[in-house]
Design a protein that fits this description.
The chain is of the alpha/beta class. 50% of the residues lie in helices and 10% in strands. Strands 3-2-1-4-5 form a five-stranded parallel sheet, sandwiched between helices.
Length: 210
């Protein structure tokens, strides 16, 4: 189910895409299903060692060297697996969501103002742009790891709006996380929750943006 902040919102003039799980698939299980074949053991590893919260700090700007050292100090027997998270990162972003990418490129071709706002480590984002050239097409991008801020903190939405001269109330943010959608709404933006390209296209049409 998609959500917007309020029915009386002004027309959308700026469209802002998240990247992971909106334009590009992301799943750490892809390499780790090979590295830790037992599903229960693998789930435990992600729940207690290389957790989502641990990885989010790299999105905030922490270096991988520091991140690995912190975990290895607590889990020395898991050192190789901890280092494998970064080493095999490229496998985690296995493919693009072609339907979403087509929508984004169609919007740009129509002359719509399109930018991106993403929680992403600075170094892995550079790799992602080389692997997925369509990430170079929008007018610009705010990468959390480059500025030390992460969604859903209000400051990252405000920074993006200032950087690209967006009017928040006329900006539509597309993200797969309800927390990040709520963060955008709290910052005065419009926002929809991404579930699939078909629903996104319908949301954009409903909002007069497609």
């Amino acid at each position: 189910m998609s959500e917007t902040n309020r029915p009386a919102s002004p027309p959308v003039r700026h469209i802002v895409f998240d990247i992971g799980k909106v334009l590009v698939h992301y799943d750490p299980n892809i390499p780790f299903s090979r590295l830790i074949p037992d599903e229960t053991e693998r789930d435990e590893f992600f729940a207690t060692v290389c957790t989502h919260e641990w990885n989010l700090e790299q999105d905030r700007g922490r270096s991988w060297a520091e991140a690995e050292a912190l975990l290895i100090a607590d889990y020395p027997d898991k050192a190789d697996l901890i280092r494998a998270f970064r080493t095999h990162w490229h496998e985690m972003v296995s493919h693009a969501y072609d339907g979403s990418v087509d929508i984004m490129l169609d919007l740009i071709q129509q002359g719509r103002d399109v930018t991106m706002l993403t929680n992403f480590a600075a170094d892995t984002f550079k790799e992602a742009r080389e692997k997925f050239p369509f990430l170079k097409v929008p007018r610009g991008v705010t990468v959390s790891g480059e500025i030390g801020l992460i969604k859903p903190d209000r400051a990252i939405y405000e920074t993006h709006a200032r950087s690209f001269d967006l009017e928040p109330a006329a900006s539509l943010f597309i993200d797969d996380s309800q927390k990040n959608v709520d963060g955008a709404i709290a910052a005065g933006w419009q926002s929809v929750l991404f579930t699939d390209p078909e629903t996104l296209r319908a949301d954009l049409t409903r909002l007069g943006s497609f």
